[in-house]
Amino acid sequence: MASAYSRSMQAMIDALARLPGVGPKSAQRIAFHLLKSEREDVLKLTKAIEEARGSVRFCERCFNFSETALCHICSDERRDASTICVVEESRDVVALEKTGQFRGRYHVLLGAINPLEGTGPEHLKVREMLLRIEPEQVKEIILCLNPNTEGDVTAMYLARLLKPLGVRVTQLAMGLPVGGDLEYADEVTLGRALVGRREVGD
Amino acid sequence: MASAYSRSMQAMIDALARLPGVGPKSAQRIAFHLLKSEREDVLKLTKAIEEARGSVRFCERCFNFSETALCHICSDERRDASTICVVEESRDVVALEKTGQFRGRYHVLLGAINPLEGTGPEHLKVREMLLRIEPEQVKEIILCLNPNTEGDVTAMYLARLLKPLGVRVTQLAMGLPVGGDLEYADEVTLGRALVGRREVGD
Q: What pTM was estimated for this model as a whole?
């Protein structure tokens, strides 16, 4: 029965249910929580969202989220400009930054090639990536795309595009997750781990 | 690295992560989604939340969420005033309404007795429930509390309080979930299903 909720309640639930990872049940749960919360806590949430949406834009160089023209990574003089990590989304930048293993710059494609959804290279920041190679004297481009069909297709496309330009093109190693159990690894991962095997002691 | 996010971005993620069922990972995912969404879609969400929070209050009689002094159930003349379903939260009203099996009214306690969290009967709408029995000529009170420790304790407390008043006190049947598999039922549920067994054909 749709009539179980009042109009404004239903509007809130509908809006919440459109968020990623929030189904109708969680939307309802969050809605009830918000109705029971202090009015000022609710305003704190909505203000935080509106403020972030208002102040955050894309970095002019790498298309990472940023509150300034250049993001904090692109404007950091200590980062190595000659290596660029190409990722699909800003959240991948966050994940890679957390490893503490990368001191170069990023380039966010804002998606991956997906013919089924009609996303071609022209919808991604591919041209903008190519235009960075010369002025930033890029020597290596690390393709850090998601290990799925869209990511693989995008990686192949970019590699074909980049290799003639004399740039070293690499990609993330595939293999067993650290702490994982061999027995529970899927056969594709295990296969890639086998193909990518390394000498002990490397 | 906390420095992975700008201040306003971090504030939004923190506010989202305080919602029920939203962990740090989903908060981050929702935040990125909101930043990539059209500005007006984001405003639609925050406005819907603020509007609902502003207009929704508690029903004066049953403490269900309502936009009017009396909720749509309490103000529905066709509902049977003599039977009251006592529930912990408004969301339980929604769940029970969806069954289409109940034509009486509700009473929302706004919680359950939980000594560990310091929630006693005085923090719940127990007194308000008792005050309804006489004027509404209540004949039966169905205790629809959650099948857990807090719900059981609350049910026992309310039953002891209500029985001397000459009201019929019932509670929801316990047993196997419809569509469930006997083999996978936990032993407590199975035990309750055994104790509550009924003649075939009832």
A: 0.71
